[in-house]
Amino acid sequence: MTLSTDPWIWIAAILTLAIFSFLYRENPFYRFAEHLYVGIANGYAITFYWHRILVPSLFDRVGSSSTPLSTKIWLIAIAIIGALYFTRFIPRISWLVRIPIAIVLGYASGASIPRAVSGEIIRQMKATIITRASFANWQSGLWAVIILIGVIATISYFFFSTERRGLLKPLSYAGIIFIMIGFGASFGYTVMARISLFIGRLQFLLGDWLGFIK
Amino acid sequence: MKRRLPLLIVLITGIFGAVAFFVPYPAIRAADEIMRNDVQRIIAAFSLVLGVGSIVQHHMLKIQRRAQYYSYSYITIIALIITAIIGVFGGIDVTRPGILPTRFGSFSIHIQTLYSNMMVPLAATMFSLLAFFMASAAYRAFRARNLEATLLLLAAFIVMLGAVPFGRLIHHQLPAFAEWILAVPNTASKRGILFGVELGIFATSLKIILGIERGWLGGGK
Fold it and tell me: Where does the chain cross the membrane (chain A) (predicted)?
């Protein structure tokens, strides 16, 4: 056992234990670590936006002599529109915050329409449709048929416009079966991801901090 | 004016965002690129003001009202200010130091050091805690009461066992079966759900652009 002499390893280990203490019950150590995390995460977000977006995309370009005047005016105008977010905290003119929100929301909504249709719906439909290439071997052909049935069954489960009678009844029931297997698989996958994080923290405590494992 | 102007902006930028995808003219393509790379990025960066402002306001109010556990709010605010000062003035790249010294002999308070030794351990431990709570929630929710619940339980177990070496010891084909569950029935159900999600995005986007959905305007006139 060789204890770490790095003060940062000690800080990380104490914070890790403080969070794990929540497994016993909510306590002052956990509350301290939780509030510290919120503060640091927000401080880091400010740093990230400042150095990765505002400095290279705005300040450097406005301050550069090689940037044309028209571009500089355009960038300053965008910055002024962005600064309207600050009006959220001035009740008399707080409605101005709607302008930058409208620009971001409007463009994002508009751009998402063709992306949703061509990038997702049509591409997923193409991947679902069975072609001759799907039957390159019997296995891939069978899996393609199961996927096609599963997609149709899942969609039919969410079809609430008519009463479930005739073919729709067994099809929507098959949809539930596929959905349950899908949810179970997603759940298992998520739990494994969390457990691997847990193992990582244990490796840090027992290895980097306490030196029990190399 | 206070509502019509934002609605008009949403209509114009929304139509532009949708149409620019289909128009091959270089001028429209260039304008779309400016919209994406300059306008969206810079305005979105300023939107952080809303998030950080709200969190500071929330904790200041807690301190003012001496609410329960208000003393912890000082920790959040102080940590936020110190991290932001170190990050903004100390530089984000270790190779390009800022105006604030972040190295004192062998001891560093650089933002990347704070990130690796405070933010990463806190975040990773916080998320690893969820493994315990998910397991206890699953115990209550997944009891095999009927066929559907049994299938959910089995799929979760097979995927979990297939991802660890112990699964191979039970049966050498178990990891391959777990892969098959993820690749075939899981893909089928996710694809079916994805169609609904994408149609929902399409409909909501259209409602926002046409001014039918106005929740984003918030309260007031």
Answer: 7-24, 36-53, 73-90, 141-160, 172-192
The answer to the question of residue A83 being in a domain is no
Residues of chain A scoring pLDDT < 70: none
- Has residue A76 been placed in a domain? no
Q: Using the beta-carbon criterion (under 8 Å), do A43 and B87 form an inter-chain contact? A: yes
pLDDT band of B83, cuts 50, 70, 90: very high
Search chain A and give the residue with CA nearest B86. Answer: A47
Tens digit of pLDDT for each residue in A114-153? 988 888 889 999 999 988 888 888 899 999 999 999 999 9
Q: Which helix (H) or strand (E) holds B46?
A: helix B41-46
Q: For residues A1 and A208, give the distance between their C-alpha atoms in angstroms, rounded to a whole number.
A: 11
Closest chain A CA to residue B2: A95
CA distance B172 to chain A (A): 19
Name the pLDDT band for B144 (thresholds 50, 70, 90). low
CB within 8 Å of chain B, chain A residues 144-183 = 146-155, 157-158, 175-183
User: Is the separation of the CB atoms in A137 and B80 below 8 Å?
Assistant: no
User: In which domain, by residue range, is A168 found?
Assistant: 129-214
DSSP H or E run through B108: strand B107-108
User: What does the block give as tokens for A63?
Assistant: 């301050």
Q: What is the ipTM of this complex?
A: 0.87
Domain definitions of chain B by residue range: 1-46, 57-141
CA distance A210 to chain B (A): 16
Asked whether residue A161 is assigned to any structural domain, the reply reads yes
Residue A191 touches chain B, beta carbons under 8 Å: yes
Let me know if residue A201 belongs to a domain: yes
DSSP state of B171: -
How far off is chain A from B26, nearest CA to CA, in Å? 17
Phi, psi (5° rounding) for residue B156? -65, -45
